[in-house]
Amino acid sequence: MANGASPHSDRPALPDGLVVVVKRECETCQMIAPLLRHFDATVYTQDDPEFPPDVSPIHDSDLSVSWHHEIETVPTLIRIIDGEEMERTVGWLRSDWQRITGIDTLGDELPAMRPGCGSMSVDPNLVDVLRARFGDSALKSRRIELADLDDEMEVLFERGVTDGLPVVPPTEQRVLRMLEGTTRRPDDVVAVVAPDLVEVTVEKVAINAVMAGCKPEHLPWVITALEAVCTDEFNIHGVLATTMPVGPVLICNGPGTRAIGMNSGVNVFGQGNRANSTIGRAVQLVVRNIGGGRPGEVDRAAHGNPGKVGFCFAEDEAGSPFTSLAVSRGFSADDNTVTVFAGEGPRVIVDQLARDPNHLANTFAACLRTAHHPKLVIGFDCVLVVGPEHGHVFAEAGWDRDRLLSELHARLQIPGADLVRGAADMAEGVPDWLAGETLGKFRPDGLLLAYAGGGAGLFSAMIGGWANGSTGSRPVTRRVVP
User: Fold this and answer.
1) Is residue 151 part of a domain?
2) Which of 1, 71, 243, 427 is surrounded by the fewest CB atoms within 10 Å?
């Protein structure tokens, strides 16, 4: 969305001779202003068109000269010969000014050196607008011009590019700022997004990341998550098309989660953390806006879940008694990773009394057995998110990740006679021919373990998955690349 952005301008040429760039609000510029009467120079002023007096300054009102000629500090003195810059000095350094002007006594009464001030063209409040206006933008997306009376938010709602909540208008300057968060080129293809099988570029991801409310440092995580969900293993097309309430759940690991301020503690699945909320949301917006995965169309969820707006959280690796999810999946603790899981909303596991790991494992197993249906086994994966107070119980007993998972799988071996259709007076279940078998609730690697949540509260959580394996979805972990 261009929203009235000006087209990129050609680089304005500087005249031969001496050129000086100043602004009134700079004390060093005020100090050297009287010297400008002692030599011929073209003077550009950034702010006050009347400053400096008596030298007929040119007002660089749109900062095009300052931007194109990379003026970072004022005052700047430049010598131009045949249209080419020969030399420049910034701030006030008497020896440089005397050499460049050829006046040996210039400024003898002034201090030998005084630093300048920041140019208005590098002002953080202006730089993104100037980059969009004058920069050599590589953006290829179509610009949408809005009338003065158009409401940006309402236009985006009308165009159907929101998830039902307001989005940030993706102006060119915001998109360019977002792209500063990655080393990838704007036209690099990130993935082919189902269901429409459209190639999505870094630029398109950045546009949706802006709309989601991301910061530039979030962009690599969004890109990585998209790469992961657009694999055959994760099968985003199937995740969309199923009538089950699942969507991509993003579990983030590595020191980068702390660097960008992700939440792994209190209210870890809830509102209030920008990184968690916007990274997950950006992934969903790309799937919707680029891939065509819209509710009521390809997205056929019977009920859905609030996490389909965006479900992303970090694991609390620093406080965990277990190795992290990423390490268990073959990555280093120093790697920044995203694991994507096709999951429903989280369900709490309550056990306020257990202080013995066996008692607590029994509670976990009883709750996990109910995932989707207590008589449906093997076909669904699950993420168990252990809370800190429950984690302490296992830590004090010396149970590591492998021990806890082994104990849970052992407790989740269920006689087929209890699972067949009609058992417990429930029609749902497995075929009768499995009555003599013992069946695991989850496949051997179908129960994932993560550690997160607030330090107070004897709670953990479970996130049920969709159909697993080659006919459904498998968790995918990818390393985050800047």
Assistant:
1) no
2) 427
The domain tally of the chain equals 2
Question: Is the per-residue pLDDT at 243 higher than 90?
Answer: yes
| In-domain check, residue 141 | no
Indicate which CATH number applies to the domain containing 96. Answer: 3.40.30.10
Q: Are residues 161 and 59 in the same domain?
A: no
Cα 379 to its chain centre, rounded Å, is: 32
In which residue are the tokens 């806890």 written?
404
Do 165 and 102 belong together in one domain? no
19-30 tens-digit pLDDT: 999 999 999 999
Nearest to 334 by CA among 254, 425, 401, 253: 254
State residue 4's pLDDT score: 37
Tell me if 146 is assigned to some domain: no
Q: How confident is the model at residue 136 (pLDDT cuts 50, 70, 90)?
A: low
Other Cβ atoms less than 10 A from the Cβ of 356: the count is 12
76 and 201: one domain?
Answer: no
- Are 310 and 456 part of one and the same domain? yes
DSSP state of 468: B
Q: For 211-253, give the secondary structure using H, E and C.
A: HHCCCHHHHHHHHHHHHHHCCCCCCHHHHHHCCCCCEEEEEEE
Q: Based on the domain organization, do 218 and 164 belong to the same domain?
A: yes
Percent of the chain with pLDDT over 70: 97
Q: What is the pTM of this model?
A: 0.84
Q: Are residues 163 and 130 in the same domain?
A: no
The CA distance from 38 to 253, in Å, is 63
Q: Is 70 among the domain residues?
A: yes
Structure tokens at 157: 């709602």
| Domain that residue 86 falls in | 17-134
CB-CB neighbours of 470 under 10 Å: 10
**Same domain? 89 vs 182:** no
Taking the alpha carbons of 386, 391, 394, 398 in that order, is the dihedral positive or negative?
Answer: positive
236 SS3 class: helix
d(CA 104, CA 101): 8
- The strand ranges marked E within 365-455 are 380-386, 413-415, 438-440, 447-451
What's the distance, Cα to Cα, between the start and end of the chain in Å? 25
Across the range 458-468, mean pLDDT stands at 97
Are residues 176 and 271 part of one domain? yes
Other CB atoms within a 10 A radius of the CB of residue 339 amount to 25
Enumerate residues 6+ apart whose C-beta is below 8 A from 260: 215, 217, 218, 221, 275
Residue 182: how many CB atoms within 10 A of its CB? 21
Distance CA 16, CA 81 (A): 5
> Cβ(273)–Cβ(258) under 8 Å?
no
